[in-house]
Amino acid sequence: MTERAIERTSKAAQGLLGRVDVAIFGSGIFGAIPRLLRTFREAHPDVSMFLHNMVKDEQIDALRHRRITLAFNRLMRPVDGLVSEVLLTESLYVAMPSDNPLVARTAVSMTELENVPLVLFPTGTRPSFIDRVHEMCRTCNFSPVVAQEVGDVVHAVALVATGFGVTLVPRSATSLALPGIAYRPLHHPTHPRVDLCCIYRNDDDSPILQSLLASMRKAVHEHYPS
């Protein structure tokens, strides 16, 4: 075996060489996920990373059939053979038209949304963030006025910008700067937060996955302390 081949074999065994396929989702293109993946790529330049945009059911199927190594999502139910590890949790914000009177507030109370049309997301596999919003409304003793249900946060915020109502988003999505949109922190008596999970096979002990997980855990500890 040549010296170069020995070096490549050693790097692969340490998770420093190879390919990793990662599934992301709607609001996953904002905030923490790009930063976590960039940190890994900068430290592992010989690892080729490929990103795939998938809804939750597609992620689970792709993991089971080993088409991807890891996925990111929220509000995961238990799935046989898969680990759902919470990396961090995010506070919630109200996205509203910039001419909405609530923009004058430093924070918006959930009870102030009782009769306000809401755009909810994501459609598809349940439970999802839609169910979390319904639960939050029940806690405040009202049923939401649902203007529309859409596939992801981008479409939700775009509809809000055109006057469909307001929507609730995780803090990371507030980096989505569209004309005519304002964000304010949500005040709710239970102080709800939404999790960000990474999902992977419980029998995957590959060096490249372990290296990616270690990198993300370290980055979360450094940049997103609880």
Question: How are the SSEs ordered, and which strands pair?
Answer:
Elements: H1 3-13, E1 18-24, H2 32-43, E2 47-53, H3 56-64, E3 70-73, E4 82-97, E5 108-109, E6 117-120, H4 129-139, E7 145-149, H5 153-161, E8 167-170, E9 181-187, E10 193-201, H6 207-223
Parallel strand pairs: 1-2, 1-3, 5-9, 6-7
Antiparallel strand pairs: 3-10, 4-8, 4-9, 4-10
Helix pairs in contact: 2-6
Order of helices and strands: HEHEHEEEEHEHEEEH
Instruction: Label the overall shape.
Output: elongated
Average pLDDT figure: 91
> What is the rounded distance between the termini?
48 Å
What's the gyration radius in Å?
20 Å
Q: Based on the structure, what is the oligomeric state of the protein chains? A: single chain
Q: Structural class per helix/strand content?
A: alpha/beta
Fraction of residues in helix: 25-40%
**What's the helix count?**
6
| Unreliably modeled segments | 10-14
Main sheet attributes: strand count, strand direction, barrel closure: 8 strands, mixed
How many beta-strand segments? 10
Strand content: 25-35%
